[in-house]
Design a protein that fits this description.
The complex is a heterodimer of chains A (about 110) and B (about 110).
Chain A (H helix, E strand, L loop, with lengths): L2 E5 L2 E3 L5 E8 L8 E6 L5 E7 L6 E3 L7 E6 L4 E6 L8 E7 L9 E5 L2
Chain B lengths: L3 E4 L2 E4 L5 E11 L4 E6 L6 E5 L3 E2 L7 E14 L9 E6 L11 E5 L1
Parallel strand pairs in B: 2-9
Antiparallel strand pairs in B: 1-3, 3-7, 4-5, 4-8, 5-6, 8-9
The chains are: A mainly beta (about 110), B mainly beta (about 110).
């Protein structure tokens, strides 16, 4: 069974940093591109970033470019998102997603507030 | 950026009804890069359709997808009580991989 388990969310002040992790199991993690998708409270879905299966290629939404960094460690079956210069409008549930869209984690809540 | 516009925003229907949800793109999208998701409150989205018309694993055949170019449709032939939820389309052919704003399906 495919499992994606996000962690690392929490409450942070504007301008602060967080590192999200997503542990993957039940599939060949290193064969698949992975994405982060977020959802602000009561709002729709927003694609945030994607990383290729080997980690050599990344892409970001303009709203997070130069502030967020997606990375992965295939030896640990883990996806990461380093989030810097956080803003109030980054508040959302962050989902780890196999890039095919077929599998999503349960999400981790990031709240940015003073 | 490719903007996806879903219509209608909200629909109120009854179990047993059929429905067609629209997703219109601001520029042409490759059909192989269009997906539809269902999301229920407090849950992660679930993939229904990929490649515009292929059902994901375990999705009932009352769900079907169609379309090409700028116009895509998710059709649910006979609504079951568990189908009342939010529905989102997504294009993943051109970065940023945008989502539509969603259509909410309510029970009448």
């Amino acid at each position: 069974e495919v499992q994606l388990l996000e962690s690392g969310g929490g409450l942070v002040q504007p301008g602060g940093s967080l590192r999200l992790s997503c542990g993957a199991s039940g599939f060949s993690f290193s064969r698949y591109a992975m994405s982060w998708v977020r959802q602000a409270p009561g709002e729709g879905l927003e694609w945030v970033a994607v990383i290729s299966n080997g980690g050599g290629t990344t892409d970001y939404a303009d709203s997070v470019k130069d502030r967020f960094t997606i990375s992965r460690d295939n030896s640990k079956n883990t996806l990461y998102m380093e989030m810097n210069s956080l803003r109030v409008d980054d508040t959302a549930v962050y989902y780890c997603v196999v890039a095919t869209g077929a599998h999503w984690g349960q999400g981790t809540l990031v709240s940015v507030s003073s | 950026e490719i903007v996806l516009t879903q219509s209608p925003g909200t629909l109120s229907l009854s179990p047993g009804d059929g429905v067609a949800l629209s997703c219109r793109a601001s520029q042409s999208v490759s059909s192989i890069h269009v997906a539809w998701y269902q999301q229920k409150p407090g849950q992660a989205p679930r993939l229904l359709i990929y490649g515009a018309s292929s059902r994901a694993t375990g999705i009932p055949d009352r769900f079907s997808g169609s379309g090409s170019g700028t116009d895509f449709t998710l059709t649910i032939s006979r609504l079951e009580p568990e189908d009342f939820a939010m529905y989102y389309c997504q294009q993943y052919g051109t970065s940023p991989y945008t989502f539509g704003q969603g259509t909410r399906l309510d029970i009448k």
